[in-house]
Amino acid sequence: MSLLGEDIMTEEGEFVINIGPQHPSTHGVLHLKVWLDGEMIKKVQPHLGYIHRSIEKMSESLSYRNFIYATSRMDYLSAHINNQACALCVEKGLQVEVPPRAQIIRILMAELTRLSSHQLWWGCTGLDLGAVTPFFYAFREREAVLAIMEESCGARLTQNYCVPGGVMYDIHPNFQNRVKDVIKQIKSKFQEYDDILSGNVIFEQRTKGVGYLSPEDAVSFGCTGPTARGSGVSCDVRKWFPYDGYEKVQFKEILETGGDCYARYMVRMAEMKQSVYIIEQLIDHIPEGDFQAKTKAVIKLPKGEFYQRVETARGELGVYIVSDGAASPYRIKYRSPNFSNLSALGHMATGSKIGDLVAIMATIDLVIPDVDR
Amino acid sequence: MTNEEIKSAVTALFPTVTFDETGEFLNILIDSKDLRPLIKALRYNNEFDCDFLFCLTCIDWKTHLTMVYHLLSKKHKHAFVVKAKIADINNPEIETVSDIWQTANFHEREVYDLFGVKFLNHPDLRRIMLDEDWEGHPLRKSYVDENMISI
Asked: Do the Cβ atoms of A316 and B51 come within 8 Å?
């Protein structure tokens, strides 16, 4: 299909423009075809698949230990949480008990991941809306979090730290002290984040009342994560279907009722504080013991189906494994949060101005490799 | 509702359906031709009220295809699975549910793209991941690609 070769004006007098696939505000290779009446958006059609790597097909020929690594490349900002979902799903099939130490380490790492992901999102949102400074402020703290990741997991982004039965290695001896230092540093910066962006008049005007998503539509489009919670839809998997001991941790599910870009922004800002709160509860109470349960070298899941969902930084990730008893999965489906969230983009953007499209995309927090898989 | 209550309520409306309780969720098994009335009842009847379709996918069993719908009710907090068997593997067809849950629009396009299932009355059935001129449907077990390298 030649998209660029078509007429740029329709018979009704609407302009057709292409945004992407190489556009900085799409945060990756997403191609949007937009129908415009003047500055008003009439229709948005996302074209996906520029980085479709067929991870689901690949996983059908990989072992239950190896397929987990591919998922780090889906939502690369929540790589650890993706790995956790797969490990939990395999554990569900094997009926393995994960040692308490491994559970706590996983939660700590997951919340650090959420923090670093939201920090990157905060910086990029500012960048998209014309404020360059937040990006540097966000990356200052984010680098400190990633350094902790690197020390214990060996990688900054694609951690591959979760394995069926626990985590791959024990945490680094410095882990607790460094986390405490970083948390202290991040906590002191929250006020700065609010001062620099949240209360900014230009920022408020560009986000308040923009990209409205009603609660009914949010559920119907399958939106999850901060995108849905900004519309007041309760959907936090950590509360609804606790995993890895989240039921023992105290935290609040953040809900905003505005449904616009500003509400989604506020949800993520508050979620960062909740992540810090979770880490503070657990960091001094990591139990002693094994960091990995014993599993067989070659894992074979019993015949059947297993579904596991987790809350990534962007919403509900579901891993659906169909096993026929062999050493590799018969079929794997990743229900990725971004794929469903993106499907609501056209609905949210229709009727708003072309400039607001960037604000809407920024507050859905799209990660394209997770859409394309 | 508990699984037993769901079973009796569904059986009262659709006597022909069968159930499978071996997995995590209650599975409601049905033939692809009878999907629409069941899905509509599960979405709009107050006792079920499944407003959240959290996963939609397909499985290729070599002899037939199975469409899998994971449903959740935000109000009643119950979840279960509807499985529709498509017997005709060479020309698979099923009714769309994209008018009931808007998320199904993209998910059905993905299944059409990767499995070749035609969704009747779908508003915009095009390939979503692959190019329009791609031959075959990669997630089918019969799909062969000579360039595929196994490591």
From this structure: no
In single-letter form, the type of residue at position A84 comes to Q
Q: How far apart are the first and last CA of chain A?
A: 22
Which pLDDT band, with edges at 50, 70 and 90, does A21 fall under?
confident
In chain B, whose CA is at the least distance from the CA of A66?
A: B151
For residue B48, the SS3 value is coil
Distance CA A15, CA A33 (A): 10
The mean pLDDT value for A193-218 works out to 87
Token reading at A200: 């900014």
Helices (H), chain A: 55-59, 67-71, 79-94, 100-128, 133-153, 175-193, 201-207, 215-220, 226-229, 237-240, 261-282, 337-343, 345-349, 354-364, 368-372
- Alpha helices per DSSP H over chain B: 3-13, 35-44, 104-115
Q: Is the dihedral of CA B18, B20, B26, B30 positive or negative?
A: negative
Rounded to whole angstroms, how far apart are CA atoms A38 and B106?
28
ipTM: 0.88
Query: Are B70 and A307 an interchain contact pair (Cβ–Cβ within 8 Å)?
Result: yes
Please state the domain extents for chain A.
52-372
> Is residue B30 a contact partner of residue B84, using CB atoms and an 8 Å limit?
yes
Q: Which domains does chain B have, with CATH numbers?
A: 3-93 (3.30.460.80)
**Taking the alpha carbons of A163, A169, A171, A172 in that order, is the dihedral positive or negative?**
negative
Per CB-CB distance under 8 Å, the chain B contacts of A333 are 55, 57
Q: Are A285 and A104 in contact (CB under 8 A)?
A: yes
Contact A342 B22 (CB under 8 A): no
Query: Which residue of B103, B106, B131 is in closest CB contact with A220?
Result: B103
Q: Helix crossing, A133-153 with A100-128: angle to 10°? A: 160
Give the other-Cβ count within 10 Å of B82's Cβ. Answer: 25
The b/e string for B85-121 (b: 16+ C-beta within 10 A; e otherwise) is: bbeebeebebbbbbebbbbbbbbbbbbbbbbbbebee
Report the distance separating Cα A10 and Cα B90, nearest Å.
38
Residues in B closer than 8 angstroms to A318, CB to CB, are 54-55, 70
Of B68, B31, B91, nearest to A330 (Cα)? B68
The string of pLDDT tens digits covering residues A69-80 is 888 888 888 899
B10: closest CA of chain A, how far (Å): 22
CATH architecture of A52-372: Orthogonal Bundle (1.10)
What pLDDT does residue A111 have? 92
**Distance (Å, rounded) from C-alpha A170 to C-alpha A105?**
9
> Which residue is it, tokens 């941790």?
A249
